[in-house]
Amino acid sequence: MTEAERDAYHAEKMRKKKAARDKILATKTEEKGLLIVHTGKGKGKSTAAFGMVFRALGNGMRVGVVQFVKGVWDTGERTVLDKFPDQVTINAMGEGFTWDVADRQRDLAAARNAWDQAKALIEDPAYDMVLLDELNICLRYDYLPLDEVVDTLRNKPEGKHVIVTGRNAKDELIEIADLVTEMTEIKHHFRAGVKAQKGIEF
User: Record's family (predicted)?
Assistant: First the structure.
């Protein structure tokens, strides 16, 4: 096959692909707020969620963030988001990982306070998107009633996007979600003795 023939073949193949794609896209007419879940053992769940937050900010949307585990730590994403006080509200409600705190009652109280703030943001029409970072950890350890969380998320305002992150997402949450992504770990530098690093983990 000559280069000209290969070019012509490629052009025809792409034309057919575009026609098929356009046909599929023509059937996608619904617009709604999505419930999005990032779970799995691999790295990148919160990172991907914050990527959506930055994308929303770039589109002039208002975003609320509730961090269920992370406390008021200095992180790169907080530093950037603090530059958009009119568009984003950050609530770092956690007290650290449960194995650091080692006090179940404090964990329960922190989870309840964070969830109450989350519900307020979800119900507030001023916010277009709400990120519930590491909510799945609280659900895994039964720090919050699963039925209450699922009911709230199932009945969220129609146009509101809600993102939930954390390992071990409950089946009940996955069932009601519109988009679920599982991060799968193939290889991780931590296992080779490399510590958490600025710009990568925080």
Answer: Belongs to the Cob(I)alamin adenosyltransferase family.
Residue 191's pLDDT band (boundaries 50, 70, 90)? confident
Q: Is 134 left (phi over 0), alpha (psi -120 to 50) or beta?
A: left
> CA angle 31-147-30, nearest 5°?
10
Give the tens place of pLDDT for each residue, 116-132: 999 999 999 999 999 99
> Please, which residues have CB within 8 angstroms of residue 75's CB and are 6 or more apart in sequence?
202
Angle 146-154/104-123 helices, nearest 10 degrees?
10
pLDDT attached to residue 101 = 61
Residues 6+ apart with CB under 8 A from 27: none
Tell if the pTM clears 0.85, that is, is over it: yes
- CA torsion angle for 65, 66, 68, 71 (degrees, to 10)? 80
CA–CA separation, 5 and 8 (whole Å): 5
Helices H / strands E in the chain, number of each: 8, 6
DSSP state letters, 17-69: HHHHHHHHHHT-------EEEEESSSS-HHHHHHHHHHHHHHTT--EEEEESS
* AA letter at 186: I
What's the CA gap between 24 and 30, in Å, rounded? 13
Determine the pLDDT at residue 72.
62
